[in-house]
Design goal:
The chain is an all-alpha fold and about 130 residues long. It has five helices and no strands. The N terminus is likely disordered.
Amino acid sequence: MPHPHHNAPSDAPDTVTAYDDAPTILAEMRWVTDRVAAHPSGTGLSREFWLRKAALLDRIALKESAECTPADAAESNAVAAKAAHRLAQYDRERGGGPLGTTHGPIPPDSPLWHPSYRPYVRQEYAAWLRMTR
């Protein structure tokens, strides 16, 4: 699995820029679990849910990668990568333009995101935070 910091486009924000003004990890966990509890079937979950869930899992994986051995952090990195892919898929399915769901400069179908969509999550989360503050 590629390192979560590698292969990111130069326009993508780094982890500090993306998450500097983010709510605490615990607050984001609470927000995500509240949404899941309100939608137990998984239907009707918004893009904000998929974005915040992917960012939360990315932040947890980054924290574990900094504090644990690579073997111990492998599972959280894999889960974060899967959530990032899910967000990119959600955005690709909705397309660009005025009805599109993306807010960052690089679209989800750009080959620049391969093999990891985690930098895409950071781009989109940073853009979302700017819009909501």
